[in-house]
Structure formats: C-alpha cells, structure tokens
Write a structure and sequence with these properties.
mainly alpha; 6 helices; 75% helix
C-alpha cells in the first residue's frame, strides 16, 4: 500500500507542478476556473496520499519520545502556519496588490514553509522513515513552485526585490 500511495502522491505533486509551470508561462489554460478547481482536488489527493504514506510506511524507526513530540510540534506549527497564512492572505487580497502585511511582512511564502515543516514533522512523529526520506523529493517540488512564483512576482511587482530582501523564505 505504501508504494501505491507514494505513486499517487508523486503524480499529484507532478500535476501541481505542471499547473505552476503553465501559470508561470502565462498559459491561458492556467487561468480557467476549472483548472483552479482541479488544482484544489489534486492538492487534496496529494495531502491524503501523503498521510497514507505515513500510516503505511514499511520502515518504522525507533526514536526517543522527545523526538516524536518534536515532530508532532513541527507538524502542528506547520499546519497552523499554512492555515493562518491562507486566512491572512484572504484578508489582504486585492487584485494587483502585493501582499506584504501580517505574516507576509516576515515570511514571503508562509504557506510553502508551513507545508515543508509539516511534511518533515509528521513522519518523525509517526516514525515513518521512508516517508521522511521521501520528503527530500516533496520539498524539491515545493521549492520549485516557490521559485516559479517568485520569478513571476518579480516581473509583476517592481517592489518585489526589495520586499524579498527584507523578508525570509
């Protein structure tokens, strides 16, 4: 089952990456409402399959309780950061406006950062070694999404380079 869920997870990451590339290339297909809905579904499948990987991981590792608790704390902080930044983004959203307030005044990509620490923390908590190792692949995808998004934002907003210099991640 682990390998099935790993495959589903990989395909989901790949599809999300294709969407990001289309968006970066200004392909009109990426702006269609149906595509955005598909991306939301793909992300739900991605998260579900990734959690299944943790539960079905065949390589459980023995780690001390403090490390498992640390993993749980990372997971909770990552989920909180992801949700909080999404809510914060909605509060500032205005077409054509660079969001620089709230959490975005400190971290440029808090959703991606939250996602990264959550995909490290939960496998540690679950003692899921193969899933933890696979995080290198997933984080590579996320960093690529971030790179494309930041290149696009630099083209879109003249003040983005200065904002990037003053913020982290």
């Amino acid at each position: 089952m682990f390998f099935l869920w790993s495959g589903v997870c990989f395909v989901s990451y790949f599809l999300r990456t294709v969407f990001n590339v289309l968006k970066y290339q200004k392909n009109p297909m990426a702006d269609r409402k149906i595509m955005l809905n598909i991306v939301y579904i793909v992300m739900a499948v991605l998260w579900f399959s990734w959690f299944q990987m943790c539960f079905f991981d065949p390589m459980k590792i023995n780690i001390p309780v403090w490390a498992r608790i640390s993993g749980l704390v990372l997971f909770i902080v990552g989920v909180f950061l992801f949700i909080y930044s999404h809510i914060n983004l909605k509060g500032f959203t205005g077409k054509g406006t660079l969001v620089k307030g709230g959490i975005y005044s400190k971290i440029r990509n808090p959703m991606y950062f939250g996602f990264i620490i959550w995909i490290i923390g939960f496998p540690v908590f679950m003692r899921s070694f193969a899933t933890l190792i696979s995080s290198v692949v997933w984080i590579s995808f996320i960093l690529y999404w971030k790179l494309l998004e930041e290149k696009d934002l630099e083209k879109q907003y003249s003040e983005y380079r200065e904002y990037k210099r003053k913020t982290w991640f």
